[in-house]
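Please decode residue identities from the backbone states below.
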């Protein structure tokens, strides 16, 4: 399953993707497969995961799956172990699973919702990174293998996001994890970067606007200089740029993919 006239830049690479059946995850997974990668896809939605795996396998991709909730440490351990057991290595990890909050002021965000957002978006990334970093740094020590981690943050990790304060706090934390761990592993063969999209046309947007009286996803683009939502392929291309082994000097960066929003 490789693109015609493409050099299959991820051939021989094993890519782990969390939140793989969501709007962004499935695009990222299928684009990596098209460029030759083998995939370990993880999500809490087992049925959708099996269906997507079947789809990609029928197109010639090598795919394994691991079902679980990222807030549980055992999920991270199992997905990394499955990648190693199936493919014998892990080259790239895209920590993409995440949830949005409903669109409300901070004082109106309930404690349970706040705890859930921090558990999925922050603890989920911490659990995943701990296991990914362990196997990636062992591979570097034993074989000199270089690896890359791409964390899915958000423009809400770079600037304030009114009515999405807890979500913004969680994505600022993801960028803090990215920058700090990039420094820790800069001489240990692992590059770690974050991708920071503005609103993307995925099922998550429906969740963000669900609490509003007049749900209007297109209205969310009014603050974006390009005056539009991003499409999943515009985020996927940045993820693969960050993961590309030839992009070998870039680490600790938080890339705004936002139609100019953070240039203001
Ligand atoms: N869509 C946007 O506008 C947007 C903008 C900026 C950043 N992001 C980030 O991109 C990432 C993907 O978002 P999306 O738009 O594809 O959302 P989505 O809702 O379409 O997909 C999210 C995926 O994560 C999975 N997931 C959620 N909670 C989980 C858990 N506890 N354990 C395991 N899997 C879980 C879901 O099952 C789903 O498949 C998220 O981290 C999100 O914060 C999205």
């Amino acid at each position: 399953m490789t693109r015609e006239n493409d050099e299959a830049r991820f051939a021989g690479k094993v890519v782990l993707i969390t939140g793989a059946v969501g709007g962004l995850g499935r695009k990222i997974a299928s684009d990596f497969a098209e460029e030759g990668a083998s995939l370990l896809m993880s999500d809490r939605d087992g049925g959708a995961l099996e269906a997507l795996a079947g789809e990609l396998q029928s197109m010639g991709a090598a795919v394994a799956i691991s079902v679980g909730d990222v807030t549980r440490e055992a999920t991270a351990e199992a997905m990394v172990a499955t990648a190693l057991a199936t493919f014998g290595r892990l080259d790239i990890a895209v920590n993409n699973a995440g949830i949005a909050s409903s669109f409300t002021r901070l004082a109106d965000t309930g404690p349970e919702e706040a705890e859930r957002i921090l558990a999925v978006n922050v603890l989920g990334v911490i659990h995943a990174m701990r296991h990914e970093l362990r196997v990636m740094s062992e591979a570097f020590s034993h074989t000199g293998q270089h690896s890359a981690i791409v964390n899915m943050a958000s423009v809400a990790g770079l600037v304030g996001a009114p009515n999405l304060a807890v979500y913004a706090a969680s994505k600022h934390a993801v960028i803090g994890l990215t920058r700090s761990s990039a420094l820790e592993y800069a001489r240990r063969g692992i590059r770690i970067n974050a991708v920071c999209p503005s609103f993307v046309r995925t099922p998550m947007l429906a969740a963000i606007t669900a609490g509003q009286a007049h749900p209007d996803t297109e209205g969310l683009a009014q603050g974006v200089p390009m005056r539009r939502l991003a499409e999943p392929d515009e985020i996927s291309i940045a993820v693969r740029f960050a993961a590309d082994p030839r992009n070998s000097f870039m680490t600790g960066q938080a890339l705004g993919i936002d139609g100019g929003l953070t240039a203001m």
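Observation: The pocket of nicotinamide-adenine-dinucleotide is lined by residues 19, 21-25, 43-45, 69-71, 96-99, 120, 152, 154, 197, 199-200, 202-205 (CB under 6 Å).
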